[in-house]
Design brief:
Length: 175
């Protein structure tokens, strides 16, 4: 799985996805390698540290419950005065790596690529290049998850995907 990050709350979304993998798919997390990438070393370091503003934890807890989390979300982190620090075991299968979606090429054959709210900052040509990179990096029938404001509809890559959940911008690669 690849998770290109932005220097915002995407790191926490990744942690939520990891805890849901742990809860819902017994044994899958141990067999999964997650690549969390960003062009920004600072964002990568914050993700490695697993520390997030405590003010966001209410929303993250709500998301955890909406996604079907069965354990108490607070069991995954320790809170101090203004931060929550996630349990380091959540990141055991995560490789944090610098990667530039614009200039770097494919580096694996992924079954899932999650790239939420990154491409909204790119023009059409750059979005096309990134979608081509994702296609080159994805296993047959792999899953692509984009942000709610992102789309592949007008892309030349659109025919390569079928929608699984159009509202959530989740697609499966056809070939």
């Amino acid at each position: 799985m690849a998770v290109p990050l932005s220097a915002s709350d995407e790191e926490a979304r990744e942690r939520l996805e990891i805890d849901l993998l742990r809860e819902t798919m017994e044994g899958l997390l141990e067999r999964t390698r997650i690549y969390a990438t960003d062009i920004d070393d600072g964002a990568l370091q914050r993700a490695r540290d697993g520390a997030f503003a405590l003010k966001h934890m209410k929303r993250y807890t709500e998301n955890h419950l909406l996604a079907g989390g069965s354990e108490s979300f607070s069991s995954y982190y320790v809170a101090d005065s203004d931060q929550a620090r996630f349990d380091r075991t959540l990141a055991e299968g995560v490789v944090f790596a610098q990667h530039n979606l614009v200039t770097d090429g494919s580096f694996n054959d992924f079954h899932l690529i999650v790239c939420r709210n990154v491409m909204i900052y790119f023009g059409f040509d750059l979005q096309e290049a990134v979608l081509q990179l994702f296609g080159d990096s994805m296993a047959r029938f792999g899953i692509l998850a984009l942000g709610r404001k992102e789309s592949i509809r007008r892309s030349r890559q659109a025919e390569c995907y079928e929608p699984l959940d159009e509202a959530e911008r989740i697609f499966r690669r056809r070939r």
